[in-house]
Each structure stands twice: as structure tokens, then as C-alpha cells.
Amino acid sequence: xxxxxIKMTGAAALVAGLxxxxxxxxxxxxxxxxxMPDQASTRYEEHDxxxxxxxxxxxxxxxxxxxxxxxxxxxxQQQQFNSVVSQGAKVIVLDPVDSTAAASLVKQxxxxxxxVIAYDRPIPDAKADFYVSFNNEGIGKAIAxxxxxxLKAKGVAAADGGVLQINxxxxxxxxxxxxxxxxxxxxxxxxxxxxxxxxxxxAPPKAQQWTSGQVTRFGKKIVGIVAANDGTxxxxxxxxxxxxxxxxxxxxxNDATIAALQLIISGDQYNTISKPSEIVxxxxxxxxxxxxxxxxxxxxxTLYDTPxxxxxxxxxxxxxxxxxxxxxxxxKAEQLCVDRYAEGCKKLGIGG
Length: 352
Fold this sequence. Notes:
The chain is globular, with a radius of gyration of 20 Å. About 55% of the residues are buried. The chain has helices at about 10-20, 45-60, 75-85, 100-110, 135-155, 175-185, 205-220, 230-240, 260-265, 275-290, 320-325, 335, 340-345; strands at about 30-35, 65-70, 90-95, 115-120, 130-135, 160-165, 190-200, 220-225, 270-275, 300-305, 305-310, 315. The protein is about 40% helix and about 20% strand. Helix 1 packs parallel to helix 10, helix 5 (about 135-155) runs parallel beside helix 6 (about 175-185) and helix 7 (about 205-220) packs across helix 8 (about 230-240).
């Protein structure tokens, strides 16, 4: 899979660059649906949906956006899909709960002349009209490589133990790509994978429960944990702390949520991935407007036989959190440096 790198100079600049040169004129008053998969990850409600709606307003002021979140229920997502079809959606942006089950939704829509943009998570068994996402395989490898480099820099020998691997939902094709990337980073690293878990629905409590069992099983042999996103990473950290593990071994993440960035500030989480969802939301809006106008969105690569636009974001650790998050205006110091995190922020040169 070809990797397309972008220089992150702040979410606003990226979005502006992304949309520059758009010449498409959408059908007047057209309806576009934005269907997201769950609420376990706060990004969809806090960033993706608002970002998509905002960009659609800029690109097509009189277009109507229908937003629904399936809350990790594939049956509910099918009902929501049927609902937006009945409401006249001409383009459906779909982030599937179940990537396999979503294939039938794509075919159902296309049979009625409705365009489908796969969003964030690919739909391998059906050719969507376009796919927009961050490079998930690249993300998995990046967080694993970052952890391995950290362990080696700290002088942690492979003989000292191994790592736990916490993947995302087994029904999410994007989770499968992240998982593949993690293995690419770990398999030849010299560090043994002690155990591996696919987290149903990406649910942090399930990741926490599984990690608790592994702490009992392996104890001090756990020298690090590669978690596929911040929610599962946070669950792992909670399990380690509940078990009295001190110091907590380095734990990875992905999404740069407020909670995860604060855990990095406090020293409890090692890394995350900064991927402002507004970037992908803007790209999806741009693609939707082009499809409405009968134009073909520009693809950088082809993935699962679908023309795709993929972005590679930055790995964030305590060392570059200020540069990647605060200085690029992705988040403000006032949002992070509250209460018990204030002291950690001072140590990182964040805030007053």
C-alpha cells in the first residue's frame, strides 16, 4: 500500500490546503448522509461529525447533511442506512460498524444510483465509490516502531520479557490494517509478543479486563503494551494501575484524545497518534461534493479495488507533544493542563 505523507502545519491549514482548487458544484439542495460507527471513541462526536458538517456548509451551503451514529450496533446502522436512503441521500459517507456486513449496504445504495464513500474503515468486499482515511497500516507500524525504539533506548533487553498486543474490533477492517502494521513493527523487533487480543467493539472496559488477566499471568515480564487506540490503551493503563504495577510499562495509543494526551503528560502513556479527524472529514466532504457534481474525486492510491485518499499523521510522545499538539493549534494548553496535569505540563514547557 502506497503511503501518502502530509506535512502537519495545523488542522486549519491542512483543511484549507485540502479543499483548495475545488471546482465542483453540488446539486442544489442535495442530501448527504454521514454515518459513524460508535461512541466508544469520542472522536466521531467531537471531531468527525462537526468537521464534516462544517466543511459541507462551506462547499455546498444549501446541501442537507444527515448525521447518525450506530453506537457499535450493526443492525442499528443498517436501519440508519435505510432511513437516509428513504430521505433521499445522494451520497452516503459510511464508517461501518461491521466492515463485512457493510458490503451489502454499498451494493444496495449503488443499485439505486447512490454514491458511497467509505470513511475511516474500508469495506473490503464491495467497491465503494471512494475511500478516505488515515493510513491505518502505517499507523500500526508507527506506534509499534516507536515503542520498540523506546525500549531499546532504555536498555530493555528482549530477554527481560515481552509485549502485549491489544488490537481493535475484529469486525473492523481498519483494525485489521492497524493490527497488520503492529505486527510489521513487532515481529522482527526481538521482543516477543506475550499475548494478543482483538477487542470487541473497541471497548476500553474489555481491553482493561483482558489486560488484568495478562498482568496476573505474566507480571513483570510485560515490558510494554502496543494498544491500537487510546481507548484500549487507557483500559490497559487502568488495569496496570489497579494491579499496583509501578512503574507502568510504556503503553501506546492512537487518536490523540484529551484523555490520552493527559496520560502522556502525566507519564502513564508513552505515545499516541495525532490525526485531526477534521482532515479526513474535510476530504470526505470534498469527495462528496465532487460526486454530487458528477465528477471523480482524485485518488492517491487504490485499496481494496477502491480509489482512495490516505493520510499519514504524526506519532506523539512527551518529547514532541508541545510541538505537534499545542504549537500546531490542534489543542490548547488550557484543555490539557488542568488539575493534576498542570505540573506535568510545566515540565514539558506547556502553558504558563
